[in-house]
Amino acid sequence: MKAFAPTFLITVALMTTSAVSAAVYKYIDENGNVAYGDKPVDGSQKLNIQSTRKPSPEPADEDDSTEQSTDSSPNELDEGTAEEAAKAIAYKSLSLLTPKPGKQISGRSASVQIIFLPTPALARSDELVITVDGKDISKGRDANLSLQDLTRGSHTVQGRILDANGKMKIQSDAVTFHVKGS
Question: Which residues contact 35 (CB under 8 A, 6 or more apart)?
Fold first, then answer.
């Protein structure tokens, strides 16, 4: 559970920051789990992750409206530029951080944390669809999902990123994990 907190915080930070280049360190914790942090530890590997988001433009003052061109307003230009930029984003990867392939989960009320990491960060106009056992269970901007009370047996999770028109840009590998009875 200790490895989840840094992973969750880093994933949230990556999704909510604008035009940021951050150093993230991947390492194996004392329990043998893969963990992530913002500070180096012995045996850690530095991962350079960059967000391609631009900060939102400042709203124009009402007094400035008379100075605007009649051809197009700055907001229309910004929206067009943002739309073109979103279409131009080519994702390098969509990684499933947890669960790991083949993970064994035990207990009566089995739960698993699903965490995806898109590289670069998810564009504003795109959405992440999380599929479990062939059914879409989450669609939006949230790359973290907690599944509770899973049934016994094998389960498969996969993610895909869709653009504003519903066209798939990238898909993760399918990962199978197992729930054992108590």
Answer: 2, 3, 6, 7, 26, 27, 28, 29
pLDDT digits (tens, 9 = 90+) for 49-104: 654 444 445 444 444 444 443 444 344 434 455 555 555 688 999 999 999 999 99
Q: What's the pTM?
A: 0.54
Reading the block at residue 96, the tokens are 């499933």
Dihedral Cα 26, 30, 34, 40, nearest 10 deg = -10
Domain boundaries, the chain: 1-55, 90-182
Which residues pair with residue 128 across a beta bridge? 140, 161
| 90-182 topology per CATH | Immunoglobulin-like (2.60.40)
127-132 and 93-98 strand pairing: unpaired
How far apart CA 119 and CA 121 sit, in angstroms, is 5
